[in-house]
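BUG: 3D viewer hangs when loading the predicted structure for this chain

Environment: internal workstation, default settings.
Expected: structure renders.
Actual: progress bar stalls at 90%.

Input used:
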Amino acid sequence: MRWRTALFLALVLVPARLGLGQAEVVENGRAGALPAGRVSAARMMNGPEIRAKLGLTREYEGGAGLSSVKVAVLDSGFEGVGGGRAYLPADAVIVEHYDPELIRRFNLGDPEFRKGFEPGNRHGRVMAQIVWGVTGARPEGPRFYLLNANGPTMLRRAVRYAIESKVDLILFSGSFEGGGNGDGRGPINRVVDDALAAGIPWINAAGNYGGRVFNGPIRPLDDGYLRLRKGADVASLRFRNHVDENNVNVTLTWNDYREDEDAGTEKDLDLFVEDWAGRRVGSGEKVQVTGVPQADSEQSRNPRERVVLESLPAIPYFPKDPDYCYRIRIRAKGGRFTSEDRLRVLVTASREAYTPPDGGPPRSAFEFVDASDQGELYPPADNLLALTVGDGSPSSSMGPTVDGRTKPDVLLEDSRAYFSDGEVSSGSSNAAAYVAGAVAILKAAAPDLGPGPLLRIARQGPPLPASILADRPRAVNATSSVLRLWQAPTRAKLVEVMRAPR
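Structure tokens produced before the viewer hung:
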């Protein structure tokens, strides 16, 4: 999700009346009411336009059955909910910490382990607001479950809580930089599979890693460093940073994740980052281990290395010298690598754009020169039965998956959401929340709609428009509808699709 201020909104948009209400907070899985309040709350403004774009026609107006639909939003933060503002229907449930009895019964880690919401993070709350706006923003529903999924352990607990609460759909507008090999399997996807096996549709954002990922084979040279590309310096990947004090993260993973979390690996790679003069500015040199009950600070039971570069200096770009860049190097330290082994490098920056001093239009603050421009989906966006949603912007992650499946399943051309406080957000998170709102309406019309039929419905849309294909050739890796997702939204059509062969 990306934000920007839009001061002109008050002049062109008319605020909608929303029902005031108060969420209930759950402590250790037990609900308790908060005192009522009537404090100003930012509202989503363009819900009707999004409904029209999604093809949610008058057959669905009135919200028949919507009050009985349960929507679980799994996220790391829900800042603002429960603070006296009527962001959502009054019967919304917020769960930050899970009941120790639930944790013990389903073996969800140490009951003493608690990890709260990220302070100041309102991402999850905004996702729920978007879902509510698409469904019509009625006080009577749907009923929201805002569940803490701040890390793999909390994700497991959130999914189990959702299953036990018999929710009708799950929205997860996030991904994990590790926990899988890009083929829809691994420990993160195992958790998602539990929800799918319970018949709960899972809607996942594709992620906003467009142009930020390199995929390639693991090919050690004689000195142990890996051959990564063609050119004068084959053992490097290049990136440019155009603004000072930018925070850049470089994450290396390789395809030795197992089905069990922290299963360990005997294959060991090291990660290094150098500046344009060859001086090392960061390294990840943990020792990958297996069979160790508890890894120490210099060990890792996951096939992953990460380098965090804080306040990275800018370097000038010389068109005559395209290799004047920061460089990423990877070295094989242990284990036997074969032709089947592959790696992924993800490079992200806290500053994505800047305004040049000449007054021209905004420019990219960061470039990953050797990005692969495909294979950018991280778990669980690569899950086989999850409905993965992206948008038409260059930053939206694209497939295919490592095992050759087309993803994302749905692309929305425009994911912008306008709010009454003058803010505008966009990105694949928004797109996923839009689709989740549509799925909530479909579930109200056809309660038996499950993950498989939902994928078939989503893939029945028209081909991608020429505007997206022209601006972003890698969008050909996606199949689905942009805009009118469900063109025949009637109960009879839904039942027909649900009964079709898998």
